[in-house]
Structures
1.
Amino acid sequence: MKTKTSYRTYSCGELREKNVGEEIKLSGYVDTIRDMGGILFIDLRDYYGITQVVVSDSESATDFAARIPLESTIQVSRKG
């Protein structure tokens, strides 16, 4: 279900391989956070599904993301 708004371009669970390279903006609740030593996996959920977000760009980004409380509402964006 396409639900483009000012705070998201897609719903969680809606992204597919054809979306690679697009500018993406997702909003939802932090369901789980898994720290794999330098790479963080965040399961972001909304009413429509779950999307796994990977945080690995920098140590400061992973440190910040690791401290997000579960059930927090966040917005994640990626430029194509």
2.
Amino acid sequence: MTIHEKEGFFGPFGGCFLPEELTQEMSRVAAAYRRLKADPEFINELAYIRKHYQGRPTPVTFAKGLTSLAAGARIYLKREDLNHTGAHKLNHCMGEALLAVKMGKKKLLAETGAGQHGVALATAAAYFGLECEIHMGAVDIAKEKPNVTRMRLLGAKIVPVTSGQQSLKEAVDSAFETYRKEYPTTLYCIGSVVGPHPFPTMVRDFQSVIGQEAREQMLELTGGLPGHVVACVGGGSNAMGLFAGFLEDKDVRLYGVEPLGRGTNPGDHAATLSYGKEGVLHGFKSFLLQDGQGRPAPVYSVASGLDYPGVGPEHAYLKSIGRVSYVTATDQEALDAFYTLCKTDGIIPALESAHAVAYAVKLARGLDKEDSVLVNLSGRGDKDVDFVVSSFGVR
């Protein structure tokens, strides 16, 4: 438990706001997690999986070409794109799946936006011999065909969601409805640091391996900590994982980059912390983009993994106390960064990660050459190349 967390709340944010039967189930999940996270057998089994299956630790790479282009601070990339399945998502999916096994569950259930969480959970289910069902918006299925194919190859059942905007929020709604019917035998493996307690805490804990590794790696590479740490924020799991390694270091500035999409008009972006207000969604209290009636507002981003109208409650708290600066990058800035990193350093980033890269370059340009910027390259762009090339061409 972090020093700012108490009984599932981060300040006024978090909690568990669900129907009674699911609230009781969340209490059982929380109790099991509290017991297992202190169990040496659970800890050792997860450590073995991370080293011998996931390929951790992932490296930190000095982005020589990007640094030269920025002509300012040195830019480093935490290479979660090299984690098995191509993104940070497997960090918590293997932990959640192991928890499910220890609880005697037979099936894993989840939503996915960009498909990386779905692929990671399908991978975890195959590893542990569990059933897997993934709910995904029809719009995202069309955009992320490579990941849909991967999920099916891994044995997952894909449930297309055709209601509303047919995107991530609707996928969560759909998965929750299924969970209400199947929770005795099923664990809902939430894909980010969102949802009812204990998921914001649990997913953050599993993802904190990113920050722990990055801290040690930067000390080894540079002899000191980075001056600036940058990560994209949709729900916020990759960012919370990286920030966890540096929260207590007051000299390290932290930046969460939200998707500004096409601009500031409602429905053109998903920058929740920048334009939202307090509300309750999917069983937790946080910042929420809302329409005039207080309902979740339509959202948009070129990156399917970022188009969610809410955000993790710990992020809301960190904004409220001023520990993290939440900034934005537009679709165009993210696309420019996507193409640029391909050419400067031979790395194809996920569109989600490209938002962080875009802001990091802008930030580095205003800093001197002795300073350093660490970026979480949270995923690789294999899933995005067909969509990007068909929509925007090859530069």
